[in-house]
Amino acid sequence: MIENTNRPSLTGLAETISTLTNSIASHLKESNHETPDFTTSSAEIPSNSEYEKLRIGLNSVALDLLRLVNGPKVGLRDFFTHHYEMAAWQVALEFDYFNHVPLEGSITLKELAQKAGMDEGRTLQVMRFLATQRVFKELAGETDEEHPFEHTATSAMIAREPLLKDVFLMQADEMFRAASSTSDSIRASPFKITFEGSPFALRHGQTAYKWYEEHPAYAARFSRAMAGVTQLHARQPSSTEFDWESLPAGTIVDVAGGSGYISLDLAKKFPQFDFIIQDISPIMLGQGKKLWTGDLESRVRFMEYNYFEAQPIKDATAFFTRQITHNLTDEDTVRFFRSFIPGLEACKPGTPMLINDSVLPEPGEGTAYEEHGLRQVDLAMWIGYNSRQRTAREFERLLAQADSRLKLVKVHSKGSMGLLEVQLSAAASQE
Ligand SMILES: C[S@@+](CC[C@H](N)C(=O)[O-])C[C@H]1O[C@@H](n2cnc3c(N)ncnc32)[C@H](O)[C@@H]1O
After folding, report:
1. How far is residue 315's CA from residue 250's CA, in Å, rounded to a whole number?
2. ipTM of this complex > 0.85?
3. Rounded Cα distance, 389 and 396, in Å
4. What pTM does this model have?
5. Candidates 214, 323, 356: which one to mutate for ligand 1, based on the most atoms within 8 Å of Cβ?
6. Measured from the CA of 257, which atom of ligand 1 is nearest?
7. CA-CA distance, 195 to 176, in Å (whole number)?
8. Check: CATH 3.40.50.720 for 9-160?
């Protein structure tokens, strides 16, 4: 049990760290899983709930121990250089260092700088900084100028999984720039929260969606980044946390599904379903057409649709929407939920509307480490869209505001990819 106290003892924390580390080592051994290391051939960490629980526990305690040992001055001095660190990452990703360094062997500084199309001095600054995070490793050179570098587990992962580069560069590029306008956006509108007034809109001169529409290369990267994010999660909750087999065969409508890559995963697992991918962006839908090929092509329809308008599909087996509400202000979330009503009214009673989005814990429900991770995304939603993440109770309130017949019938899971099941009840409640 991890105690949440303001006066933990250093040795108590160290003992918990030791116990949890031993449990992790036993878990790896019992499941025949190799112990991770920093080399390019390192095993990935296991993706199962037991390991996840131990990992989260260890992080909570180990971070607290370091906070106490470092003290606030050292801790904050370190923290307030993070934007410079992000700048180093921006360069490494933008200039493609991860793919220029070969997965086998090494590359000299000169070759790397040449391939990146920039000077050796700044390339070395970036590489040496990243090496302190165990991202790339500098080897002993034959001359003082050679500076050979090789991959580590982290840098090799980015080279091997191209979508991850898109995930990280989107953060280090347009979102990093947007984040620097946060206080300015409050000064511009201290009390009224609108999508148009987000830090992103202020920094880039347009709301995120308009900006992506006008910058197709960035829109394509955004779409790939959304697909890449799923590779960072140990679980694929949309397919495992809801009993899809319980639904009758038919059509799943993925509202604002982007390229429809989540539905694609479902389509491969559940041949009884066809899919309609709705999205306002022809670019996102266009990306999807490249993904749904072969046998899958006949099971999908791509539809341009604005989710503030009445849902046109009247014979769905289920409506599904993922990573949308956390992009919307409260007011727009209510409008979004209301748009489902004509669809739900026309479909068979009990047709589920599945909201696959972050569902925050109630205060004190999880560890500070877990909540920190969720709150990081909460801030990202603010910066990008002037939006926020919500608890199940907050979702319930907005559903009721949209239509008193919209009932949250089950919280299938909470956390970064929570899953809420909503149905339209037969009559408005008398409460
Ligand atoms: C964060 S992405 C989520 C995409 C996908 N559901 C996922 O989980 O990755 C938001 C999507 O909403 C789409 N979108 C934005 N405004 C919309 C609107 N008014 N109507 C329909 N789709 C919209 C965007 O084009 C984008 O594909």
Report:
1. 8
2. yes
3. 13
4. 0.82
5. 323
6. 6
7. 18
8. no
Q: Of the ranges 313-322, 324-333, 366-375, 419-428, which is most confident?
A: 313-322
pLDDT digits (tens, 9 = 90+) for 158-170: 999 999 999 999 9
Q: Which CATH superfamily is domain 235-424 in?
A: Vaccinia Virus protein VP39 (3.40.50.150)
Protein residue closest via CA to atom 9 of ligand 1: 226
**8 Å CB contact between 156 and 103:** yes
| pLDDT at 385 (0 to 100) | 93
pLDDT tens for residues 105-135?
999 999 999 999 999 999 999 999 999 999 9
Q: Tokens at residue 131, please? A: 């090496």
With a cut of 60, say whether residue 431 has pLDDT above it. no
Catalytic residues: 326
> Residue 258 C-alpha to ligand 1 middle, in angstroms?
5
Domain range annotation of the chain: 9-160, 162-232, 235-424
Instruction: Give the Cα separation of 121 and 105 in Å (integer).
Output: 22
Q: Which of 307, 311, 419 to mutate to test the pocket of ligand 1 (most atoms within 8 A of CB)?
A: 307
